[in-house]
């Protein structure tokens, strides 16, 4: 694990109700990266003032980016989700782990000409984003992979039968897949053993739903990690591969960017390890005031709630 | 990891061709526990002399036990497999991880009256062995669990709907399941979160087939281990829970028992950590002479091949 960022031992500044402090803080940044659940909304409930706060930032020329580890949705799907919560946004403002993965494959990995295909464990969000970057792929939601393993599959896989193991596959990308099965895991394992790069959209072990937890994208990678004795490169928060992908797209000055989040250990760490100019904690999610003020990973500043930013202009 | 057994730093005795040494060795033991693949056979090929060696042991009044981590087969299935390889055996001589798990649940765990059901991830071998010990179970090969997760499942699981989450389940038992899916993992997670004991038939990450490797029973547990942050009690080699179960059944004197295997790190370790009177390595499988003679885990004695034991009576 990386060492805590030096800044993390500072005492964070409490900005709620501090108009001058808020103005000064906003003036320092051109770009605001937002964690979503716990910051802008909770579950299906948009926090009061979220829409107005985002408007204030945009009106002042700030770039707003919504950063999500949700790999099952494409950016277009996610924009619809924001719209459903009453939050206006554009696809260009959204950065999901499926998009991050696609950018990483298409713009950062230098794959040989004959190894450009991606074998996908995951849902349609990943497929849509791979298509948007013109990355060829197999697997994913293809019904041909949603079947039981058959006795002859073992022999075909062992023999390297090219109708089951495509020789052009150079990357295995594992995201959340509600149709995970034995065959998909066996194929992913053999692709990596044959030299494919092992990527994961994100490695969150759980996925919140209906007020409790369900298997997350990391749970899809877990069997492969155990079999291979190898971790994937993860493209979601807090992996810096995601920060690199965001920077690759928006070309911003990191010293003029601020990460906003409710979780010290993931969101704030993500901003600190990315050497962003600032990190802003909010108390409407997982981390407490004590976590931010005296925990091992501390933001530059914190607020009771995101909409406290509105006081900067009152 | 357990400390190496003190005996493991001894120099193992090489017994091939040493008739007096072989006789002396055989006289020390009443019970021989056998790892199978790599000792008695390899893949589908029975080693020459295996049948005769087992006959020699039985003729001299030795108890023979076949110990296997294969959880998909019942003892009856496994006896058929031995028969197919030309090796006579009785069901009573076979000890599989599915049987070990059933014994552990029925005879060692003290489950409350209203928490006696087992939720199974696995195939019919586990079900047959649970039935043989009169342990009630759900899941397993029941087609009702071989389906995609549905949107309403999240709400039903979150609400503790007793038609999906049986309140009498007190144990989750995870073995190799060729029909693993998202719903099965979600249910297993929620049972353990609600207090069920987390068991695994075995935690081998891979399963050999057709000369290569496929996902093993450990790969079924891996997502749950990641989600729960908790390891299961494993009932296969080299877990001592399996040794306890074997002893519980055969009631033998450990000082008069010998474990025979081809792998220092699992088979020989299993015997050493179980404080058996002896361990015997054979060079027809994974470990080399160097592993046995100078590795960190060393048997009491070793042979080129199991059938070298026949020289004791020539």
TrEMBL record, chains A, B:
Q: What is the free-text note on the cofactor?
A: Divalent metal ions. Mg(2+) is the most effective.
Among InterPro entries, the record links this protein to: HAD-like_sf, HAD-SF_hydro_IIA, HAD_sf, PGP_euk
Pfam short name (any one): Hydrolase_like
The catalysed reaction is: 4-nitrophenyl phosphate + H2O = 4-nitrophenol + phosphate + H(+)
This entry's Enzyme Commission designation comes to 3.1.3.41
Going by the record, the broad EC class of this enzyme is: hydrolase
The prosthetic group or cofactor this protein requires is:
Mg(2+)
Question: Where on this chain does substrate bind?
Answer: 237
- Write out the catalytic residues in the record: 35, 37
Molecular function terms from GO: alkaline phosphatase activity; metal ion binding; phosphoglycolate phosphatase activity
Gene Ontology CC annotation, any one: cytoplasm
The answer to whether keyword Heme applies is: no
User: Where, by residue number, does Mg(2+) bind?
Assistant: 35, 37, 262
**What are the entry keywords?**
Hydrolase, Magnesium, Metal-binding
Please indicate if the UniProt record lists Metal-binding as a keyword.
yes
Q: Which PANTHER family match?
A: 4-NITROPHENYLPHOSPHATASE-RELATED, HALOACID DEHALOGENASE-LIKE HYDROLASE DOMAIN-CONTAINING PROTEIN 2
Q: What is this protein called?
A: 4-nitrophenylphosphatase
Species of origin reads: Penicillium daleae
Classification lineage: Eukaryota, Fungi, Dikarya, Ascomycota, Pezizomycotina
């Amino acid at each position: 694990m990386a060492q805590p960022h030096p800044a993390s031992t500072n005492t964070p500044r409490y900005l709620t109700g501090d108009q001058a402090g808020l103005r000064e803080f906003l003036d320092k940044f051109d770009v605001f990266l937002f964690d979503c659940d716990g910051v802008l909304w909770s579950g299906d409930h948009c926090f009061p003032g979220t829409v107005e706060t985002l408007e204030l930032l945009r009106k002042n020329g700030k770039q707003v980016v919504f950063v999500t580890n949700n790999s099952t949705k494409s950016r277009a799907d996610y924009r619809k989700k924001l719209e459903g919560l009453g939050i206006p946004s554009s696809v260009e403002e959204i950065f999901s782990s499926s998009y991050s993965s696609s950018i990483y494959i298409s713009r950062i990995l230098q794959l040989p000409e004959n190894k450009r295909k991606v074998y996908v464990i995951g849902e349609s969000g990943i497929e849509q984003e791979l298509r948007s970057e013109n990355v060829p792929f197999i697997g994913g939601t293809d019904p041909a992979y949603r079947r039981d393993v058959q006795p002859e599959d073992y022999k075909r896989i062992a023999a390297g039968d090219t109708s089951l193991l495509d020789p052009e596959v150079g990357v295995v990308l594992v995201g959340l897949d509600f149709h995970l099965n034995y065959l998909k895991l066996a194929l992913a394992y053999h692709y990596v053993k044959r030299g494919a790069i092992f990527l994961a959209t994100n490695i969150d072990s759980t996925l919140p739903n209906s007020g409790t937890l369900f298997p997350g994208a990391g749970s899809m990678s877990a069997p492969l990690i155990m079999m291979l004795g190898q971790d994937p490169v993860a493209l979601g928060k807090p992996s810096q591969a995601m920060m690199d992908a965001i920077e690759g797209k928006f070309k911003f000055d990191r010293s003029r960017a601020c990460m906003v989040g409710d979780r010290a250990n993931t969101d704030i760490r993500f901003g600190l390890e990315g050497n962003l100019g600032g990190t802003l904690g909010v108390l409407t999610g997982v981390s407490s005031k004590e976590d931010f003020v005296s925990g091992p990973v501390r933001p530059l500043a914190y607020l009771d709630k995101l909409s406290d930013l509105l006081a900067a202009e009152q």
